[in-house]
Amino acid sequence: MSSRIPNSLEELPVSEIRWIGKGVERLEDPSLVTGRTEFIDNVVLPGMLHCAILRSTYAHARIVSIDSSAAEEMEGVYAVITGRDAARLTNPATTAPEGWGAYCLAHEKTRFVGEPMVAVAATSRYLAEDALELIIVEYEELPVVANAQAALAADAALLFEEHGSNVMLQRKFTWGEVDSAFDQADLVVSDDYRWNRLGANPMETFGCVVDWNPADDMLTCRGSFQSQSYMGLARSLVLGLPSNQVRMISHPHGGSFGGKGGFRGVDICALLSKAASGRPVKWIEDRLEYLLAGAGQSWDREYTLQLALKKDGTVTGLRVKLLDDMGGTAEAFGAVSAAKPLAAFTGCYAIQAAEYDLTLVATNKVPQSPYRGMGPPPHNWVLEQTMDKAARELGLDPAEIRRRNYIPADAFPYTIASGNEYDSGNYEAALDALLDMADYQKLCAERDSAQAEGRLLGLGLVNTIEPGVFDWNAYAIVGLESTGVPEGITVAIDVMGRITARLGFSLEGQGQYTLVAQVLADYFAVTPADVSIVYQDSLSAPPHFGPGGSRLGVAITGAALGAAHLLERKLARVAAVLLQCGPDDVELMDGFLRVRAMPEAKMHFAEVAGAMLARSDLLPEDIDPQPQATYVWTAPGRTPADEQGRAKSYLTAANACHLVKVEVDPDTGTVDILGYWLVDDCGTRLNPVTVEGQTMGGIAQGVGAALLEEYVYDESAQPLTSSFMDYLLPSVYEVPRVEKKALTTPSPFTPLGAKGCGEGAMHTTPAAIMCAINDALSPLGLSAREVPASPRRLWKLLHENAD
Amino acid sequence: MGERKISRVTVEVTVNGRRQSAELEPRVTLADFLRVELGLTGTHLGCEHGVCGACTVLLDGRAVRSCIMLAVQATGHEVTTIEALANEGELHPLQQAFVDKHGLQCGFCTPGFIMAAAELLERDPDPSEQALLETLGGQVCRCTGYEAIIESVRDAAEKLRQRGVGPLGLLAAALEKKAAPSGNGGGE
User: What CATH number is given to the structural domain containing A788?
Assistant: First the structure.
């Protein structure tokens, strides 16, 4: 049934909005601050076994033999499985692009260090790890493909022999008259860039408890699943079970940022459970496993970017060439990160001719996974840093070259060259607000005088788009072609008049249960504390996807409003019977069903619901007597991708403008962030405190990306970053205090005008910091074109290029 | 094969005011003892190599990383975990401050931050910026960007100063109250 989703707060059936748009205290917090939240590692089931995984020590090797007999005989060990079992009982992982998947345990050969080889289930994790020490694997080393360039060599070893090449995807997309734009350009600016691997690293690693009941062949998977329905469908394909025999129970997770899921861990535990006569098997990935081979490595990219410009700074053409090292398989859907830039390919700019020359290759590194931002953060960096280079060559201020290329505020909705439609925005207003807030002129003067003294002080001014509310069609070019991502919710009123909302995703930190409570509280004129949010598993909940692609705040608001409206219509019909008038004469206002023409004739919604539950015999027989309704929201107006990948994909386009002041220490190569300002616009802010939290978290991850975080491999594809002593996360010392301002340009297409904002600053911060570093280095004629700009890299740049 | 003799040791430790003893393999970490043996699952494991601080608990009032300490090393000592802080449904001022100042998102690292802050505020009720950074610099949060955490600890410090009590002093008083005879013949 369709429902009417209010696009603005004025349309809600209350005379005063009390909760939406306010920094409402989160319902989630008391449980979290007392340590009561049921994270997956808390789960203990009767008869539960613990899994430990033996991992490959070689990047590329044939498996000659595996001897696990001693482990199998060890006391406390109930099951040992290898790739042979996986090949016998399962299918290789489904992948995008298709056909680059492996079994959950390496079969015949291993393609990356850390790939699961053998798994053990024992009565404790300690014993399971003891058992691993008794297993002997004999390998025959194969030549290693250590990086993307090596993958393309004519004599490169092959990751998947059946493909005859390591190229997963190679295609050039052309949108508009690109060649003529470059032919007729007054100036072409070009640079090469390198973005190194980094990744999500939520503070909680992945974990699951799986039981495969031999009696009814029902698979029950508990775990920290970011998207339980999606995970469940993939398990059904891999394990050969009907989709309704795979029940996913998602626990709250300690952060996710895109990489939570752990396909292989679930499949391994499923096979162990089957081998152990259906006993539940728990696997909690430890941090060393996560860093070695978890779903936490993303974006391993070599870029060339070219801009065609007119003398006045107008950009008329954009060429992006990307070579992305996807690692050993395509199992974790890392390739979507190379496709997502299509949703905002030209950033904030009205560039109508663009080209994307894309090559994805397989190497002997860990398969890439999604990470917050899903690909645009590196794309934004190379675009923005090249804009700065163009500005320098034209003698324009970075603010000015951007201003001259903005999509004008009156041009929305605006279709960009790569096909997506931006809903709304006012980029110049955000820029002006930022320059004003930060006193940009003064900062420039300060920078100039510092540079005159020889200090390496610089400013970075950057603006980006955050595509919000993803759709699969955005990733059509890597093989995911469907459209429509559902999010459903059931809203029910009980006999005491209390409201319960039932939905299909668990908490991971963005406060979405609070958001649902805020929306329903304002719809029915109660308080958020009067609303209970109940999580349901994948077979019980209304159709759902959960968080991902900056969608859930918008999607769940649409679902909650849709369900509330359907429920209101049902209550109105019942109230009309009770108040003896026509159903169209009744409306909901401030929690009461009232007769429009006679507002004093009214009943509280709880009374109406109570009548439905107690006396359904009095109701007309075509009325469903349950005081509850379900609504499944999908983004409106999405279109299938054309042959060049163009589609209306992401529903919203939030924008942000950041300014950062840095100083580079020439003696150590370290970067100090001396000031940080930002203005952002994500439409209506449903809970401003939550939005700010997302922004600040994105900044922290952006700082890590720009300055610290990198998965390093040696020339034989052996990982060198295997602990938090090597893979550096930003701490309280590195993340700056930020001066912020919000603008509000509501989306015309979404519930209440909100835009996706969960990835936020991650789109902008790395670019802003890199641009600031390059501004600082510009008097020396140097440019930093590799991320992270670690002390070692900057020091080398400064000293190896010194006179 | 199959014969594995692993020795066991006796661990005797006071946890949140209660004496506990267990026979454990000597290799069992304090974190696993708390989580698995005692069911105190509020102490979380983020890295298990002593960097992230999620597993921080107090040992005789000092912040320690329970992932790189063995349970047997805690014998004869007093351990305080996040579970001790709230009192009959009332959040501890540190917990309340994290709620009020949005000092958490996913909340996985939060118990560790709160325990580390408790140690700091007990010895330094009005910590300088530098002291705050030194304490919080030993804890990793991937969600919040830290600013809100700093504000939370400052807010808690102020509330505690107003009440004239340290975070652990408050705890001791609550534990004492719970331990006192109820006068109706009850007790354990």
Answer: 3.30.365.10
Domain boundaries, given as residue ranges, for chain B:
9-84, 93-178
Beta carbons of B107 and B148 less than 8 angstroms apart: no
Q: How much is the pLDDT for B187?
A: 36
Residue of B nearest to A688 (CA): B102
A730 class by beta-carbon count within 10 Å (0-12 exposed, 13-18 middle, 19+ buried): buried
Q: How do residues A644-698 score in pLDDT, each as one tens digit?
A: 999 999 999 999 999 999 999 999 999 999 999 999 999 999 999 999 999 999 9
Class of domain B9-84 as given by CATH: alpha beta
CB–CB contact B104 A75 (8 Å): no
Distance CA A158, CA A152 (A): 10
Count: domains in chain A: 3
- Give the tokens for residue A34: 């007392």
Enumerate long-range contacts of B134-138, CB under 8 Å, 24 or more apart: B135/B63, B136/A732, B137/A731, B137/A732, B137/A733, B138/B53
Question: Does the pLDDT at position B185 exceed 70?
Answer: no
* Segment 22-51 of chain A within 8 Å of chain B by CB: 23, 25-26, 28-37, 39, 41-42
Contact status of B106 with chain A (Cβ, < 8 Å): yes
Chain A positions touching B51 (Cβ under 8 A) are: 723-725
Does A648 lie at the interface with B, CB-CB under 8 angstroms?
no
Per CATH, the architecture of B93-178 is what?
Orthogonal Bundle (1.10)
Task: Kindly determine whether residue A75 and residue B105, on different chains, have CB atoms separated by under 8 Å.
Answer: no
Q: Does B67 touch chain A (CB under 8 A)?
A: no
